């Protein structure tokens, strides 16, 4: 049986809705409330799967009640039953599974019941689906073995933006300011809502592990399970401690995962700040680790760290020089030559510049000794 609660301040509507629910044979009315505050108090103990809510309520309107119920249980399905249709947009934002106008027609009510049953079955079938998200260089998302096909560019960008702010609510206006600044407010809101709908549809089969929630005019992406390289790098940087060598390897691996940067191939202006933050934190940790190895005269590890550092910051002259100098001292001229060629090419293509005179002089010195 599917556990449900009903909230309506008019007792005859409360009883009518409850009777329709009981007649389905698939639902159990676990609670009936005329007061929304009492419904809020009881919901933790009841743990309903579905809430049938009238929008025009005393003490607290139905939209606000739904927000608070979803804060307690984001997987709960919401059905609004109301005499007014002007709340449809707000219901959409909350991802209500249905919106039924009074007086309730039994045929329409039964269609909603089937929708809820199908949704619950779908969630059960996809509990084992694996989610994989890659954010470095370009955004790539797979569910099971299938890649997500976005179809709408702005839906993909919105997903990436909310992923960057995962677990936090971002106000509509802030999203529009960063993602849709070129549009008039009304058009921008329409594009945002269309993108939200697309994301919810794309991930509807894995709502148990990924949800796009709405509350207080803000959207929040919640990811309960799955692999995400961005989360992994954040965790590595959070766990890193200079005094704990056991954290060193994870930082090196994170710098490899980071590659050419956070969403760099997508061309999102708003992602550049996050890319820079991650890059600076990785560099700071790598430099500390490199210095520790260097002080202990561990040349192999020092070289490996310097290569990682120069890949993240090829414009940093001192580390490139230090690496080539170590190659010179260890008589590894071929490695020095290869690094110089890589540096020359990278600086020209990415920064429209060339290696410093000091590095050029060292390269010439090494070349003459080949």
TrEMBL record:
UniProt keyword terms in alphabetical order: DNA-binding, Phosphoprotein
PROSITE patterns membership: RESPONSE_REGULATORY (PS50110)
4-aspartylphosphate found at: 54
Protein's GO biological process: phosphorelay signal transduction system; regulation of DNA-templated transcription
Claim: Phosphoprotein is one of the keywords in the record: yes
Domain Response regulatory: 3-117
Pfam families, alphabetized: BTAD, Response_reg
Record bears the keyword Nuclease: no
Gene3D superfamilies: 3.40.50.2300, Tetratricopeptide repeat domain (1.25.40.10), Winged helix-like DNA-binding domain superfamily/Winged helix DNA-binding domain (1.10.10.10)
Domain of life, per lineage: Bacteria
Classification via InterPro entries: AfsR-DnrI-RedD_regulator, BTAD, CheY-like_superfamily, Sig_transdc_resp-reg_C-effctor, Sig_transdc_resp-reg_receiver, TPR-like_helical_dom_sf, WH-like_DNA-bd_sf
SUPFAM superfamilies linked to this entry: C-terminal effector domain of the bipartite response regulators, CheY-like, TPR-like
A single GO molecular function term of this UniProt record: DNA binding
Chain's role: May play the central regulatory role in sporulation. It may be an element of the effector pathway responsible for the activation of sporulation genes in response to nutritional stress. Spo0A may act in concert with spo0H (a sigma factor) to control the expression of some genes that are critical to the sporulation process.
Protein name: Stage 0 sporulation protein A homolog
Source species of the chain: Natronincola peptidivorans
């Amino acid at each position: 049986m599917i556990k449900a609660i009903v909230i309506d301040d008019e007792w005859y509507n409360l009883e009518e809705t409850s009777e329709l629910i009981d007649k389905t044979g698939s639902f159990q009315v676990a609670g009936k409330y005329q007061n929304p505050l009492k419904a809020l108090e009881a919901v933790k103990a009841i743990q309903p799967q579905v809430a049938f809510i009238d929008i025009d309520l005393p003490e607290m309107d139905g939209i606000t009640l739904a927000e608070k119920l979803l804060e307690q249980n984001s997987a709960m399905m919401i059905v609004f039953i109301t005499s007014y249709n002007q709340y449809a947009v707000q219901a959409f934002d909350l991802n209500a599974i249905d919106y039924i106008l009074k007086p309730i027609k039994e045929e329409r009510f039964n269609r909603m019941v089937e929708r809820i049953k199908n949704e619950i079955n779908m969630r059960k079938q996809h509990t084992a689906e694996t989610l994989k998200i890659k954010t470095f260089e370009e955004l790539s998302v797979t569910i099971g073995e299938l890649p997500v096909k976005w179809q709408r560019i702005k839906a993909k960008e919105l997903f990436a933006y909310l992923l960057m702010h995962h677990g936090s609510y971002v106000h509509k206006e802030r999203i529009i300011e960063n993602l849709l600044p070129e549009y008039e407010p009304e058009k921008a809101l329409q594009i945002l809502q269309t993108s939200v709908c697309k994301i919810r549809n794309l991930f509807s089969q894995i709502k148990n592990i990924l949800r796009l929630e709405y509350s207080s005019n803000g959207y929040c992406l919640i990811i309960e399970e799955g692999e995400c390289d961005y989360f992994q790098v954040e965790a590595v940087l959070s766990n890193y401690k200079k005094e704990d060598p056991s954290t060193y390897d994870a930082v090196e691996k994170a710098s490899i995962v980071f590659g050419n940067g956070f969403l760099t191939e997508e061309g999102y202006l708003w992602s550049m700040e996050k890319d820079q933050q991650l890059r600076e934190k990785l560099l700071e940790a790598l430099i500390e680790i490199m210095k520790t190895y260097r002080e202990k005269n561990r040349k192999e590890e020092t070289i490996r760290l310097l290569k990682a550092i120069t890949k993240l910051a090829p414009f940093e002259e001192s580390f490139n020089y230090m690496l080539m100098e170590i190659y010179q001292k260890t008589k590894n001229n071929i490695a020095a030559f290869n690094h110089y060629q890589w540096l020359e090419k990278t600086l020209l293509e990415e920064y429209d510049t060339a290696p410093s005179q000091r590095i050029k002089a060292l390269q010439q010195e090494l070349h003459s000794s080949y």
